[in-house]
Write a structure and sequence with these properties.
By secondary structure, the chain is mainly alpha-helical. It has 2 helices and 2 strands. It is 50% helix and 6% strand.
């Protein structure tokens, strides 16, 4: 089995190891948003804080994934080379 990264898909959703305290208090932030986009979001009753939080969590997940892959690239490459050349310990035991 090749190792790719520490994230995987589960029923179409990305499952990862991002950790943040979802119960942490909210903090105000000043943002600049395209006026037309803001107006459309308000007309559609989109909760801007919730939308930003969800999207920001996804961006953080992607950035953490990229960092993890970069930091572990040599180890993953070495492991995958070893498996390709020697196989896994269970190659002779599997019945599928």
């Amino acid at each position: 089995m090749r190792v790719g990264y520490a994230h995987y898909k589960c029923k179409g959703k990305i499952v990862s190891n991002i950790n943040f305290n979802q119960a942490a208090p909210k903090k105000s932030a000043n943002l600049s948003i395209n006026a037309d986009l803001l107006q459309q979001a308000k007309q559609l009753n989109i909760n801007l804080s919730q939308a930003l939080e969800q999207h920001l969590a996804e961006i953080v997940r992607q950035a953490q994934r990229s960092r993890w892959l970069a930091e572990n690239k040599s180890a993953l490459d070495e492991y995958n080379r070893r498996i390709e050349s020697r196989g896994t310990f269970s190659d002779g035991l599997r019945r599928f």
